[in-house]
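Quick one, probably user error.
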């Protein structure tokens, strides 16, 4: 793994979550200067630290260290619609406040569908 490329990815993922180097450092248990050294490509984290970074940044270790996603599972986790599955993976990578907004929108769509289904059943039962 090249330190400079790792640093660029680390910075990108940190900024995507609107975290400062100090905040990220606290979350993974290192000094903020160490995070700065990682981002500048001056050093690389240990495996343990890289795992903590990936967890906090909500990315896979593959994405963080190599810039590639891990191989997709052979079965899309009970999703019949592969596009929907891809969107859920995308949503899983965005900041928590945006995830919350997306969940509210999804809840509204699902509730609307359930109401339509219930209405249809009630009309049929008459």
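Nope, works fine. Designed sequence:
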């Amino acid at each position: 793994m090249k330190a400079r490329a790792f640093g660029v990815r680390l910075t990108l993922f940190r900024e995507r979550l609107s975290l400062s180097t100090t905040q990220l450092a606290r979350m993974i248990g290192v000094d903020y200067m160490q995070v700065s050294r990682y981002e500048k490509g001056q050093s690389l984290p240990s495996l343990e630290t890289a795992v903590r970074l990936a967890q906090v940044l909500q990315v896979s270790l593959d994405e963080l260290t190599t810039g590639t996603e891990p191989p997709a599972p052979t079965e899309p986790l009970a999703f019949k619609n592969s596009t929907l599955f891809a969107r859920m993976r995308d949503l899983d990578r965005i900041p928590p406040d945006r995830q919350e907004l997306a969940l509210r929108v999804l809840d509204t769509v699902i509730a609307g569908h359930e109401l339509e289904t219930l209405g249809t059943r009630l009309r049929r039962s008459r």
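The longest helix spans residues 96-125.
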